[in-house]
Amino acid sequence: MTMDHHEFKDKILTAAAKNQVIVFSCNCIVWYSGKAESYLGPGDRLVVIKADKTILVHQPSGAAPINYMKAGTTVNVNLSDEGEMFLNCSNIPLKDYLDMKINHVHFLESYGLEDGQSIQIAGTEDDMSQMLYENPHLIEEGFKPVSREEQTKYGYIDVMGTDNEGKLVIVECKKYNADLSAVTQLRRYVEKIMASKGLKRDAVRGILASPKIGANAQQMLEDWGFEFVSVRPPKYLERYDKNQKSLADF
Amino acid sequence: MTMDHHEFKDKILTAAAKNQVIVFSCNCIVWYSGKAESYLGPGDRLVVIKADKTILVHQPSGAAPINYMKAGTTVNVNLSDEGEMFLNCSNIPLKDYLDMKINHVHFLESYGLEDGQSIQIAGTEDDMSQMLYENPHLIEEGFKPVSREEQTKYGYIDVMGTDNEGKLVIVECKKYNADLSAVTQLRRYVEKIMASKGLKRDAVRGILASPKIGANAQQMLEDWGFEFVSVRPPKYLERYDKNQKSLADF
DNA sequence: ATATAGATCTCGTCA
DNA sequence: TGACGAGGTCTATAT
After folding, report:
1. Å from A158 (CA) to D7 (C1')?
2. Structure pTM?
3. Of A68, A164, B50, B97, which one is least surrounded by beta carbons within 10 A?
């Protein structure tokens, strides 16, 4: 495909005005200025301009965009007298600027995409805290949950309850590996509760519930008198088989 | 553009075999199973298959992909007897599976992208800690930095030094707003140093250096006897003007 | 491989 | 709008 600069400019501006999703591949140089500044030398990239004017610049490898602009960006194409082409993007409220010198366009497509669907996810930390709330014996025998996802001034405590001696128990759960920040997070909640209820340290138990915990995190947990309970994340829906038998389970 | 299933399958597999970057727009349903499970009902999406077999599924809005697969994924296209088409992606080592029922393809392009460039970024937290190391008066008069980015057993301490009384000072810097986790992070470092050097609490000062700090974080900081120093993130390169005069500065 | 922390994090949620 | 925390975070770096 050959595409001259004027054709590129026309296609971009027309599609952008219609809030189409635009994608093109090109050889380019990229400058960004805003919360940080960056420069990316010449190379081939894939550029996406979304319906909400989110802009993504992707290299041929890697999951994350190498450069991007948030939704609400203004897009312009400018041609210089010397025959150079620039894609100039600005988001004034955010003080973000992204500029590309486009040396060569490999292809360009645009289309009006319609999608009102929201994703449904199972197996999150929220599912895990719900599992613990509904199956308190997974923490220990005698544990009585009182609240879940308590997002008050005490903090966003996953599960709170009492043990068989009536002592307050605060549970922080992690889906995967519990690390140092998980321990400090638990500690922060315990201290908030202590302060707000005027309790002493030995009147509150802190429990970190996760599949596993790192050695350093374990040490810090013990140093602070907290406990670790090994809990597997909730069993997800069965992987649907090749006949899609269980697709309807969603 | 009209494209039948066999043509789609052929184009995908051919381009994937050549490690081209593939992008197509389609109406589809998406299932994911791996670290979690998800379902996304029918809608229009943009799908990218990169040279390293990273796969991204994007909705028309938003910066983040709604589904993705990490590099090294195996891609297949399967046609059912009933005329249905599926893009089946699997990453066996990661136990990740992504499957799409593709109802209609709006467009498809692929191209062999070459890009050996690495991005250059200014204005990161690392730049900020370097600025403080080289301009210690920004912390306070008499501050003498000793180490930077100390990633030893003591932790990843941004800047460490001594004040004009010879007391140990630990600085944690944040580019933007310092929040509760920044305070607990600082606290963790101070405690590690205290423990490793056998120092008492009043022998170590902890300073949080950032442009601003939240009210709750400020309170926690004071509760723990730490200090806040207002520091602006490093001045970036001047925004290049419209004549690209300063582009060569990179 | 694991551990640790930053990120122009993004995204959702709630006061 | 800001604050707070989760994320299939991703990515880079060090051990």
Report:
1. 16
2. 0.93
3. A164
The answer to whether A228 and A178 have CB atoms below 8 angstroms apart is: yes
Residue pLDDT, tens place only, B97-154 = 999 999 999 999 999 999 999 999 999 999 999 999 999 999 999 999 999 877 666 6
Terminal CA-to-CA distance of chain A, rounded, Å? Answer: 43
In this structure, what token pair is assigned to residue A92?
């004034």
Q: Which of A36, A41, A247 sits opposite B117 (nearest CB)?
A: A41
Q: How far apart are CA A58 and CA B50, in angstroms?
A: 9
Q: Containing H/E element for A29?
A: strand A21-33
Nucleotides in D strand less than 7 A from protein CB: 2-12, 14-15
Distance from CA of B64 to the nearest CA of A (A): 9
Residue written as token pair 């001034």? A153
**Phi and psi angles of residue B23, each rounded to the nearest 5 degrees, phi first:** -140, 135
Q: What does the pLDDT look like over B223-240, one tens digit per residue?
A: 999 999 999 888 665 444
User: Nearest protein residue to D13's C1' (by CA)?
Assistant: B151
Fold of A125-230: Trna Endonuclease; Chain: A, domain 1 (3.40.1350)
Task: Specify burial of residue A183 (Cβ count, 10 A radius: 0-12, 13-18, 19+).
Answer: buried
How many CB atoms lie under 10 A from the CB of residue A71?
15
List, in order, residues 6 or more apart from B176 with CB less than 8 Å away.
Answer: A35, B210, B211, B212, B233
For nucleic chain C, which protein residues have CB less than 7 Å from any of its atoms?
A: A 32, 34-36, 38, 67-70, 96, 98, 118, 151, 177, 179-181, 214-217; B 62-64, 121, 123-126, 155-156, 158, 172, 175-176, 185, 188
d(CA B149, CA B171): 10
Cβ contact B103:B86 at 8 Å: no
* Residue B128 one-letter amino acid: M
